[in-house]
Amino acid sequence: QKEVEQDPGPLSVPEGAIVSLNCTYSNSAFQYFMWYRQYSRKGPELLMYTYSSGNKEDGRFTAQVDKSSKYISLFIRDSQPSDSATYLCAMRGSTLGRLYFGRGTQLTVWP
Amino acid sequence: DTEVTQTPKHLVMGMTNKKSLKCEQHMGHRAMYWYKQKAKKPPELMFVYSYEKLSINESVPSRFSPECPNSSLLNLHLHALQPEDSALYLCASSQDWGQGIDTIYFGEGSWLTVV
Lengths: 111, 115
What we know:
The complex is a heterodimer. By secondary structure, chain A is mainly β. Chain A has no helices and eleven strands. Chain A has strands at 4-6, 11-14, 19-25, 30-38, 45-50, 54-58, 61-66, 71-76, 85-93, 100-101, 105-110. Chain A is globular, with a radius of gyration of 13 Å. Chain B is mostly beta strands. Chain B is 0% helix and 56% strand. In chain B, the strands form two sheets. In chain B, strands 2, 4, 5, 6, 9, 10 and 11 form a seven-stranded mixed β-sheet that branches. Chain B is globular, with a radius of gyration of 13 Å. The model of chain B has no long low-confidence stretch (mean pLDDT 92).
């Protein structure tokens, strides 16, 4: 079993839709959770990072962490064509310095 | 805009060539990383430098040779590569290596094609 599981999609939604992206993990030592957005042929861009269980909001983006279920989510409200990208979840423990990535979910938002 | 700058953006090299990838950050970060990313795959960690010392080498073949001349610069020297080494090479940095809610910032990457 991989440490981090993420459905690769592809996911295709109309403009204005609410998008839900999810990852599950197996290592209870993971404490820090990140979402990166990667446009085609570019490096990953940090979108959100969280530590505790609960929600964190930043504009149209909401990151949710449920440590009891080992499940994290990223919600995108009022999705735009410019949101079309691959979204990578990543996580690590307090002493485990390396990042563990999900496979990435490819999202297309069509006008 | 990313504050991790990588050059060149694209590189084509033959299997007998020697080339280098360069990375620079001016955020005062003390940890720097090289990742390799193949198409439709997540980034894979290659090397970690912490305070200019090599901390992690993920069993990377010796044809890849990292160098950290100072806290702002990171190089990846390439020699006798194979076509399967063609990938996006990402440099990244963070405040420190694996401390607290330290976040990792990536550069735009260098696209390498080995012919």
